[in-house]
Each structure stands twice: as structure tokens, then as C-alpha cells.
Specification:
It contains 6 helices and 17 strands. The strands form 5 sheets. Strands 2, 9, 10, 11, 12, 15 and 16 form a 7-stranded antiparallel β-sheet that branches. It has a 3-stranded antiparallel β-sheet with strand order 1-3-4. A 3-stranded antiparallel β-sheet has the order 5-6-7.
């Protein structure tokens, strides 16, 4: 939605980058077309949430590839990289930690690395340096390297997350609905496992400006809470609901670095200051009522909705945020280049400057596409 889109980016540039990001991630809305009961779930939720000015309830876009045999695979770095690591001018270094960016004036010349297995240290030179080490370690690496814009580490945000579960009412289950479902041989499900299977339909209540929540609805093959003895649960009949809220931005929500407490690599400990304000708590209360209504519309709620602990979303944004101008409220420009440097870039969710309710992965990859293109152009014209 418009209020989630970074205004630092040109709309046409972002749209093209989002299209490329969808290709790289293999985004689809058809991964779970075979999930039992998914049509009934989307029809019930659509009756509750659909409006003429909202995107309709439907299948959630996911980064999943459906193989010819029906097996499902989440998109990961290996799929995005393709044959990159087989190319003679590319190398993947594992088990190495970057401890410092070396600079010559405003220009990054490379990074200092430590081998985590042996402790051996080395310098890796580069014509351009990109730091994409998450929302906590990216600003720390900049900090220890003496790159300290005023906004570094600030504007930390994520989406508060309210969870619930329900059992889909039997009246919505066709008489011929299966009591089990054939799964691909490789899709074994074990306790604590993370296999994605056709049972796990994923539906979506999209974010809207008049209800700034992102609703994710997942069918499960088993109940997360105890059921009465003798209750027969059809595959996909147990529904998990997760509602994600926007959080108001504040420069006081931040990570900072305790130089009095160093780790084994002599890097400062990461500290976090993070609070919900009154507007955030009101949004959480409204989302809780909404997810309760959604659970009731599906059938039998399994307990009360509950707020997950802070940080549970794993989507941390803002600590190296982009901006159009270097006014002290951002760390990098719209291409990811750190202010006041020639060739030092940052990437990841932490570059996104807006508060979002929706998952930020697609946006972060789109920004990465923009950064990669900017670096390519720079290297083609750079005389260093």
C-alpha cells in the first residue's frame, strides 16, 4: 500500500525492481492450490473483510517452487544465485566474519576478516563493499569502522504479531473431503520439522489503509492445542491466524553498541532500546479484536488471541534506513550507498525506512536489485 512504500524511491524504479525480485524469488499464488478446504476459508474471510476499496482475501503470494511431482521448495539463496558460484570470477567464503571495513578517506578499500574455525585474520580488498549482515550487525560493522551517520542504529522497527487458532466448522467441509492426503515422499513431517506440504494452505487478508494489518492464515495438519478425545480433524481443518501490525517509527527505538563489553572478536556487544507507545498498543488491541472475529467466522476458536513477544516476527527494519537527502534521518541514499562514502553500500530489511505490516522480503530484494544495478554502473565508470 502507498503508506508502506518508501517515498525515497522513484515509483517506476521500484515497480521494475519489484518485478525482478518476484522473478528471483519465484513468487506464486498457486503453491497451495491443492490444500483441502482453502476455498471455504477464503470465502468466509472474504465475507468478513472484502470491501470495494480493498484488495480481496485470497491466496498469499509466497516464494515457493512447485515441482512436477508436486513437491514444494521455498526459495533460498542457492536458487537466487543460480550458477553464480560456478563462475570463475565469483567466490563464496564461508565461516568468515567481517570485523572492520577499511576506508581511505570516503572510499572503502575492503574488509578485515577472521576465520571462525582457525582464528586466522586477513584483508579482502574490493572496488565496492556491500554490508548485508542484518539489522543489528550491519550497523555494528559500520560503527566499529568509524562510519557513524546520526541515524545509524535508529528507527528500529518490526511488526507486532497477534496469533490465534480455530477449527473450521464441519458444515463447510464437503462430504467427500479426504480424511488424509497424499504427500510427496520427500515431504516427511516430523515433530519440530519445517516441511511445507500441500496441507499447509496459506491465505491472506491484505493490508489496507483503513485497517493497517496484514493477516496470514495457515492450514495445519495437526492442532497446536489439545482437542477433546475422539475429535476427528480433517487435513487443513485446524487454522492458524497471524495478524501483523504497523508500528509507529521512532528514532529512540534503536540498537547501540556497548564498547565496555566486547565479544571474542573484540566487537562491542549489541544493546537494544525498544518500546511500544500508546498508538502501538491501540493498534494491537484493534488487531486482537479483528483476529478474534476472524477465528469466530471460521468456526470454533481454539483459545484466545495472544500477542507474541517483541522480536518474534524476525522482520527487523530501519537501522540503516534509506532517504532522499542526507538530513540526519537516514544512513544511505536510495541505491543503498552510505552517505558521505563513494563505494560503501548496505542491504537487507534494515534499509527499508517505512513501518510495514506486510513481510518485507520482496521489498528488501527489490532494493537489493536497485543496489546491484547502481554498483554495476559505478564499476563500469570507476577509474579506481
Amino acid at each position: 500500500m502507498d503508506d508502506e512504500i518508501p517515498d525515497a524511491l522513484d515509483a517506476d524504479v521500484l515497480d521494475k525492481a519489484l518485478g525482478r525480485a518476484e522473478e528471483l524469488l519465484a513468487v506464486t499464488t498457486h503453491a497451495f492450490d491443492r490444500a483441502p478446504l482453502i476455498g471455504a476459508i477464503q470465502e468466509l474471510l472474504g465475507a468478513l473483510f472484502d470491501r470495494p476499496d480493498r484488495r480481496p482475501v485470497g491466496p498469499m503470494p509466497v516464494a515457493v517452487t512447485v515441482e512436477d511431482d508436486g513437491d514444494l521448495h521455498w526459495t533460498g539463496p542457492a536458487i537466487i544465485a543460480g550458477d553464480l558460484w560456478q563462475r570463475p570470477n565469483a567466490a563464496l567464503r564461508t565461516g568468515a566474519l567481517a570485523t572492520r571495513i577499511r576506508l581511505d578517506g570516503n572510499r572503502a578499500t575492503g574488509v578485515d576478516l577472521v576465520n571462525l574455525a582457525t582464528g586466522e585474520r586477513e584483508f579482502l580488498g574490493a572496488r565496492a563493499v556491500v554490508i548485508a549482515a542484518d539489522a543489528f550487525r550491519t550497523p555494528r560493522l559500520l560503527w566499529v569502522s568509524g562510519v557513524r551517520p546520526a541515524a545509524l542504529g535508529r528507527y528500529l522497527t518490526e511488526h507486532p504479531q497477534i496469533m490465534a487458532a480455530a477449527l473450521l466448522d464441519e458444515k463447510y467441509i464437503p462430504d467427500d473431503a479426504p480424511l488424509d492426503i497424499h504427500l510427496p515422499v520427500s515431504a516427511t513431517v516430523t515433530p519440530g520439522g519445517g516441511a511445507i506440504v500441500p496441507i499447509s494452505g496459506v491465505s491472506w487478508v491484505p493490508y489496507a489503509t483503513d485497517r493497517p494489518f496484514h493477516g496470514q492464515i495457515m492450514q495445519m495438519d495437526a492442532s497446536p492445542v489439545p482437542l477433546n478425545p475422539g475429535v476427528t480433524v480433517r487435513p487443513g481443518q485446524v487454522i492458524g491466524l497471524g495478524w501483523f501490525c504497523r508500528k509507529e517509527l521512532s528514532p529512540d527505538n534503536r540498537v547501540w553498541f556497548d564498547e565496555d563489553t566486547l565479544d571474542e572478536h573484540h566487537l562491542p556487544a549489541i544493546r537494544i532500546d525498544y518500546r511500544l507507545n500508546a498508538a502501538d498498543r491501540a493498534a494491537i488491541a484493534n488487531a486482537t479484536e479483528e483476529v478474534r472475529a476472524a477465528a469466530q467466522s471460521l468456526g470454533r476458536p481454539l483459545g484466545e488471541p495472544f500477542l507474541m513477544p517483541a522480536g518474534s516476527s524476525l522482520h527487523y527494519l530501519g537501522t540503516t534506513r534509506m532517504g532522499r537527502v542526507n538530513d540526519g534521518t537516514s544512513v544511505c541514499d536510495p541505491t543503498g550507498r552510505v552517505w558521505d562514502t563513494d563505494n560503501l553500500y548496505v542491504g537487507g530489511n534494515n534499509v527499508i525506512p517505512t513501518a510495514t505490516a506486510c513481510n518485507p522480503t520482496l521489498t528488501a530484494v527489490a532494493v537489493g536489485v536497485i543496489t546491484a544495478r547502481a554498483i554495476r554502473e559505478q564499476l563500469q565508470t570507476d577509474t579506481h
